[in-house]
Amino acid sequence: MSVEEVAARPDRAVAGTWDAGRSPGSLIVAWQHPETRLIAPVGLLEHGHGLGYRFRYLQCASRVDGFLPFLSFPEYQRAYTSEHLFPLFSQRIMSPRRPDFSQFLHQLHLDEDATPWEQLARSEGRRTGDTVQVFPIPTVHADGWTSCRFLVHGIRHVAGGRLPPSLTPGDELKLQDDPANLVNPEAVLVCSRDGERLGYVPDLLLEHLRVLRDTGSVCLTVEHVNGPEVPAHLRLLVRLDGHAPAGYQPMSGPRWQTY
Question: Which of 138, 154, 176, 226 could be bridged to 189 by S-S, CB 3.0 to 4.6 A?
Fold first, then answer.
């Protein structure tokens, strides 16, 4: 059965029948090795008016240790298209019929009218025990200014799932290189103004962050804080601001080329 056929079946793609509406864009699809915990980009999910939805593998996907093609996308060199969001991703979106839907949007710091695509991009599509996640490609304005939001990773491992009670939106945060990190020597820690370690910058954003830091100063601030009742990966939303060099496009080098 093709992906298009799967997406067309109402019993397999109920959530996928939602329109992403006003929010076109591109998301990098990543896979986390279940043992080493290394996160590697493997695909590109796109949505746009007139395009519908399109998934393509990155050329590096076949070289990622331990990764095999997703069951719904079995061929590396094929471009998969659909009028509706593919089930692999639509099942990561909460139904608005759920009684806790509004609460979930608040945890993501999204408005009540947020589109499914916006929900997927903000939540990174992460689920407990899963190995798939998505990450929005940052945008760069004509003057080089760039701003993006991301959920701080590794809070459960770095801070034991706890955050300083004084942490509030608008607080400026610090970035600290972590070359002794055994999993990823290029890892960058997110720390409070007092130097308390809170978590990590997502691996997929490290290349972008490095470009911004090489260009000039960057600013990292708290956007939203959730309480301990919320899963650790949703605890802290931050905003990264900076300037990029002329002509720079995030996630566009050889590592990010699609088939």
Answer: 176
